[in-house]
C-alpha cells in the first residue's frame, strides 16, 4: 500500500472548522487570533522503549496524542491540532486501522484536529506527534514562577502507570496505556498557578525542574501523596518509589498561593488535585513523614542513563 493510500484511508478526515488548510498540501495553514500565542511541543514514542511491544495499536494511537496534549495542558494552553510523523516497519492494515481509531478518539475527546504529518518506512516503529495550542498573550504558565510559601499540588493519582507497567494485566495498566491529559484543569490554572509541569518522568524529578527553574526549594509530605489502593497495599518504600520515581503519569504538578488555591477549589474541574507540599526558600527537595523530616532517595527516568 502506497504512502498516499495510507494517509487517505487512515488519517485524512473532514477538516476542522478553524483549520484554514489541513492534510493534502505541502503544509497546513492556521490563522491565529492576534490576541493569542502559539504553544507548540513534540514527543516521540519508540516501540519497546516508550511502550511495551505488545501494547495494542489502539492504545499506542491514544497515547501518542495524549502525551503531547499533556504538555500543552501543562502550559495552561488550549490544545488545537497535531501533526503525525509515522515510521512503520511494514504496512499492517489491522494495526493502522486500530492505531488511527485510538489516535482520533483522543483527538475527538479534546477537540483536536490532525492537520498533517509524514509517513515513512523504517525498521523500528516510531511515532512522533507535534501538538499545537493557543493561549492568550503572556498567560502561559512556565516552570519558572514558583514562590516561597506556595502550595505544591498534583492532579489525580501518582504512581499508577509505573504500577501498571510492573503488574501488566492489573486494572492500573489502563493508566499506563490510556493516560488522560488534564486539559481542563491546565486552562483553569491560568492566572492562578505560579508554575506548572506535567509529570512524565516521575514526580520528584519533574518537581525538581520547577524548583531549579524557579530558584526555590520544597518540602514534600509523603503521607499526602495521592496514591491508589493498590499502592497503599504495598510496602511503603515501594509505594513511594512508584509515586515519586515512576514515569508516565501525565498528571499536572503546579504551585499556587494559598489564596489562589481557595479560589481554584471553589470550582469543579475534570480531575481532583491534592496539596502535597510547599515551596521553601532553602533549595533542594526535603521529604517529611508524619511531620518529621524523612530521608528518602528517589530516582526519575533518565533516557541516556
Ligand atoms: P511532502 O512530500 O510535500 O512532504 P507528503 O507526501 O509527505 O508531502 O504528505 C502529503 C500530505 O499528507 C501532507 O499534507 C502531509 O502533511 C500529510 N501527511 C503525510 N503523512 C501523514 C500522517 N501520517 N498523518 C497525517 N497527515 C499526513
Ligand atoms: Mg513527506
Automatic annotation (TrEMBL):
It catalyses: thiamine phosphate + ATP = thiamine diphosphate + ADP. NCBIfam families: thiL. Mg(2+) 3 binds at residues 26, 71, 198. It comes from the Bacteria. Reaction mechanism of ThiL seems to utilize a direct, inline transfer of the gamma-phosphate of ATP to TMP rather than a phosphorylated enzyme intermediate. This is Thiamine-monophosphate kinase. The gene is thiL. Signal peptide: none annotated. HAMAP family: TMP_kinase (MF_02128). Pathway: Cofactor biosynthesis; thiamine diphosphate biosynthesis; thiamine diphosphate from thiamine phosphate: step 1/1. Residues 185-283 form the PurM-like C-terminal domain. Its EC number is 2.7.4.16. Belongs to the thiamine-monophosphate kinase family. The keyword Transferase applies. Substrate binds at residues 50, 248, 301. One of its GO terms (molecular function) is thiamine-phosphate kinase activity. Pfam families: AIRS, AIRS_C. Mg(2+) 2 binds at residues 43, 71. One of its GO terms (biological process) is thiamine biosynthetic process. Catalyzes the ATP-dependent phosphorylation of thiamine-monophosphate (TMP) to form thiamine-pyrophosphate (TPP), the active form of vitamin B1. It comes from Acinetobacter junii. Keywords: ATP-binding, Kinase, Magnesium, Metal-binding, Nucleotide-binding, Thiamine biosynthesis, Transferase. Mg(2+) 5 binds at residue 201. Mg(2+) 4 binds at residues 26, 71. ATP binds at residues 117-118, 143, 200. Mg(2+) 1 binds at residues 42-43, 118. Residues 24-134 form the PurM-like N-terminal domain.
Amino acid at each position: 500500500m502506497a504512502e498516499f493510500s495510507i494517509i487517505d484511508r487512515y488519517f485524512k478526515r473532514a477538516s476542522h472548522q478553524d483549520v484554514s488548510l489541513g492534510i493534502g498540501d505541502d503544509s497546513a495553514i492556521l490563522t491565529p487570533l492576534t490576541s493569542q500565542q502559539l504553544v507548540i511541543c513534540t514527543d516521540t514514542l519508540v516501540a519497546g522503549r516508550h511502550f511495551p511491544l505488545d501494547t495494542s495499536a489502539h492504545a499506542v494511537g491514544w497515547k501518542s496524542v495524549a502525551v503531547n496534549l499533556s504538555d500543552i495542558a501543562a502550559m495552561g494552553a488550549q490544545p488545537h491540532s497535531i501533526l503525525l510523523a509515522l515510521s512503520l516497519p511494514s504496512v499492517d492494515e489491522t494495526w493502522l486501522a486500530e492505531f488511527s481509531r485510538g489516535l482520533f478518539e483522543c483527538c475527538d475527546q479534546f477537540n483536536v484536529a490532525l492537520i498533517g504529518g509524514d509517513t515513512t518506512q523504517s525498521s523500528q516503529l516510531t511515532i512522533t506527534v507535534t501538538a499545537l495550542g493557543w493561549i492568550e498573550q503572556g498567560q502561559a504558565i512556565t516552570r519558572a514562577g514558583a514562590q516561597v510559601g506556595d502550595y505544591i499540588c498534583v492532579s489525580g493519582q501518582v504512581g499508577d502507570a509505573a504500577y501498571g507497567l510492573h503488574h501488566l494485566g492489573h486494572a492500573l495498566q489502563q493508566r499506563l496505556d490510556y493516560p488522560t491529559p488534564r486539559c481542563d484543569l491546565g486552562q483553569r490554572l491560568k492566572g492562578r498557578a505560579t508554575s506548572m509541569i506535567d509529570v512524565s518522568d516521575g514526580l520528584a524529578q519533574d518537581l525538581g525542574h520547577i524548583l531549579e527553574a524557579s530558584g526555590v526549594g520544597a518540602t514534600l509530605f509523603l503521607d499526602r501523596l495521592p496514591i491508589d489502593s493498590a499502592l497503599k497495599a504495598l510496602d511503603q518504600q515501594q509505594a513511594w518509589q512508584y509515586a515519586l520515581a515512576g514515569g508516565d503519569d501525565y498528571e499536572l504538578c503546579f504551585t499556587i498561593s494559598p489564596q489562589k488555591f481557595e479560589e481554584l477549589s471553589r470550582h469543579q474541574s475534570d480531575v481532583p488535585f491534592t496539596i502535597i507540599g510547599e515551596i521553601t526558600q532553602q533549595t533542594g527537595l526535603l521529604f517529611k513523614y508524619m511531620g518529621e523530616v524523612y530521608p528518602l532517595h528517589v530516582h526519575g527516568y533518565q533516557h541516556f542513563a
